[in-house]
Amino acid sequence: MTDQIELHDHDSAPEALDKVIIRFAGDSGDGMQLAGTRFTDSSALFGNDLATFPSYPAEIRAPQGTLFGVSSFQVQIADYDILTAGDQPDVLVAMNPAALKSNLEDLRPNGTVIINTDAFDERNLEKAGYDTSPLEDDTLNSYKVHKIPMEKLTKDAVDGTGVTGRAVLRSKNMLALGVMAWLFNRPPETTIEWIEEKFAKLPEVAAANVAAFKGGYNYGFSTEALRTTYTVRKAALEPGTYTNVSGNTATAWGLIAAAQLAGLDLFYGTYPITPASDILHELARHKHFGVKTFQAEDEIAGVGTAVGAAFGGSLSVTGTSGPGLALKSEAVSLAMMIELPLVVIDVQRGGPSTGLPTKPEQSDLLFAMFGRHGEAPLPVIAISSPSDAFETTIEACRIALKYMTPVILLSDNNVANGSEPWKLPDLGGLPDLKPDFITEPNGENGEFLPYKRDAETFARPWAIPGTPGLEHRVGGLEKNETTGNVSYVPSNHQAMTDVRAWKVANIAHDIPPLEVDDPDGADVLVLGWGSSYPPIKAAVNVLRKSGTKVAQAHLRYLNPFPGNLGEVLDRYDKVLVPELNTGQLRFLLRAEFLREIEGLNKVDATPFKVEEIASKIQELIA
Amino acid sequence: MTTLDYTRADFQSDQEVRWCPGCGDYTILASVQKHFAQMGIPKEKVAVISGIGCSSRFPYYVDTYGMHSIHGRAPAIASGLASSRPDLDVWVITGDGDALSIGGNHLIHALRRNMNLKILLFNNQIYGLTKGQYSPTSEVGKRTKSTPMGSIDYPFNPVSLALGAEASFVARTIDADPKHTAQVLAAASDHDGSAFIEIYQNCNVFNDKAFIKLTGKEERDDNRIYLEDGKPVVFGADDEFGVVLIGGHARIVEREKVGDGAIHVHDASEPDPSVAFALSRLNHGPYGPTPLGVLRKVDRPTYDKAINDQVAEAKEARGDGDLASLIASQGTWQVGG
Lengths: 622, 337
Ligand code: SF4
Prior knowledge:
Chain A has 19 helices and 22 strands.
């Protein structure tokens, strides 16, 4: 029956914007993540460049209407290459007083607020800490305000679809989305199809949501104040096929791809933890790729099962966040000692301890570097944005398999839950990761020497159970440098400690040199790692437009560093490292290169704003 | 395939065995090596995974694939191996401290999942490798270096614990009875799924004679209750004692007082674990009449098979995964070109 509701066409041409930043905010039960994601996807399909930043409370059902129960989703869409979800929203959709209160200060002056007035009753105002209603006092004076009775409109729209009672208002996020689709000229058809597919098993719910969406869209048509609409044209991205992808999804796909490239089954041993669990969820959907997911009894068993599967010849991966990385430490050291390939993914979040589970931070770098007992260096590499996740994940697997070592792959909340357009790679161009399983004895007397190393990589051979004649034992006790038998000989321990360190250090020869983007011969270099890439790059772009000279480089490899890093640093008077911690990469650079490094550091639960980085750069140049 | 006429020597590695002379581990090692020779499984298909402790040195001495891992984690590591390689025969060697203290969580979950692992828990009721602290199976009041006034920890009954953890196969044997050990190992090999075997093992250095009631010439016949399927549970030098079940409890009786009709007939395949549990409560430590043998052996789907079945099922239903369609699965758009 909702098919019968006709959608009105826009009768005047929209005003074109080069970019717009929209934040959907509401109670965590209001469905803002879904509305935001859908708005994003329709913009992606429309051809905009975009970047998103979801933010939600750590509590699953935070008390309704409260400030700490507010969930928001910010998206920037643009007709040019943008990198971040933007510093200041141009438009705020506020579904209740708490959402307005906690987000209004971020809105740019003269920005637009779209308000669900039905939620502004006395109780909700009080919960949000408003003494008088912001709809009536002068709180909103400096903004363009659209007051919309979204609950009443939802009830009217949903009437007759079969959905009744309290369930009716669940569709109000679709009503809000309809208004936004109208206002920003997003093609409504793709969203209607998406709703119908999403709720295919619940036809009444689908009908209610479509009706609410159309109701919002048509409300835009019939409301004078919403007659001026906007559009953001397609972005001139590099030619290719694009999809909109989140970091966790792309990480999961990278693992699946790496397993295919290696010709191995993928084994993912893990324990649910925010914000890493979506990697597990994504992998669990793709068992037909030979993916085995193992939801273990705890973090230790998560990595333990992965170590066992690595011994058996799988591409083995464990995924976690900070607290879990701490628990896995001993088993990672075992994998390092017995020299098996293992990828350990740490999707960082605010720490220490339980910290801020749903907020971004880059504060596990030093733990990834040093969080093991004994002399236990491991390769550490970091993903810089959702569109970098696929390739960097494959790279982590490549290093693990080639060098028979655990590799720590750092992601974080920004990468994991943020999304952006990703140009699909040429699959034929991906590296061959096929391991050389050893099948014949390698000793001079026909014996198998499990620690006899490859002359170039220092990797030991991988002999998997089931291979006749190569039965051998590995273990955490120090091993003789060729036979692998337990050895307490002091000089052997020295030699083995040295060779394990060399093996990792030597990877520097197998990674690309650090590329520096420095078109104008600058004196200041901004050096980043991980998810501070998008705001750094955006800040550098902004500054260059105004004629400022600044160089920029980004580290994917944190251990070992690219071989030319020292020489790159030497070329600049000042080096700035922005990172969401108190200065961890800076600490490593100072220790390694004995030189001064400037830091831009914060741990305030939000990603860097472009403006923050740009003004710090200017400060250094001045 | 060639016939596998192995002898024990085929499963002896070239490493010198380094347990204390007289340690019960030697007998168990010999029993297991002999069993491996008779299993009919090619040795390259056998993997032995251990944790940390005296018993956990075991893999070094067995010429199969093996891993001496970290404290308590062997069941987890072995679970990863068994799930990813269902073609292998995976054995876990652990001790009372390794399996019941630091690794208790992994043990119960491996049993609950019915992972195809043969788990041998060498119970010597002491920490040997760290030189003699009390363990989670030591008796209350035990004086050790860490408990000079006596232990105040109430001990586990490992067999009861395994039954409570939904184990599909639970057995107990003793180092001093290699013949019985051989039978129990054979029954475990015959079982599809996790098999938990508690092996009483004498640590002659730090806890000598802990099992004297079961090993001493004088006492052993009165204290070994051998459970055999389909047979009445009787024991004693002249089989003068028996076990009856009353109101769900197992009780030791004098046969002649109750008559043979009342004696419980053992059936390890009984689906309800409460009978096996009742039998397991006949003792709480080796201090009196103690059930030995297979308490429980029931069929249940195994995790390692199920996880691989799901992969096969998914391939069957959806075909082999195609990477190009995967990365395009969330909708794509075209720019330029
Ligand atoms: S300390 Fe005890 S258990 Fe350990 S090897 Fe010596 S006798 Fe055996």
